[in-house]
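Listing S7. Sequence submitted for prediction.
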Amino acid sequence: MEQAMSTLSQSIKQLQRMSNDLTVKATNILSAIDAAEYLITHNASHVVKRETKGYTENLVGYFKQYTAWVKHSLSSEVAQCKPISNIVDSMEIVGCSFIVDSVNTFWFGLGGCCVLLIPSIIVSVKLAKYYRRMDTEDVFEETTYPWLVAL
């Protein structure tokens, strides 16, 4: 019984030591929650924009690093071999001069047609009243001009 009493008194003393810091810890947690709530309500858009900008800069950095590596590889490793260098140059000339330029011309022509389509629709609607079908021709009748029958 005495042993249970001493264990109980030790447990009570230990709980009292822990409970002294409990209010301070609860206050710290509540202040941290208030700070997080303030951050979310007032600075959330700024934080999201900053993180998004950092992420896009990171991705663009990867792309720039890759293109620099490709340029270095082509100029240092591939370009040393003259036949492969000539093949790469020929592919660039064929790709850019013949294929891409013709596609650009096609898209320019298609864009011009789309731009001219809108004014042509407006003009056609305005001129439609002059080209409507008529029930009868009002040019002339034979009874109105009898001298034309003799011709």
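Caption to Listing S7: primary sequence and predicted structure tokens for the chain studied. Helices lie at 2-78, 82-127. The chain has two domains: 1-56, 83-151.
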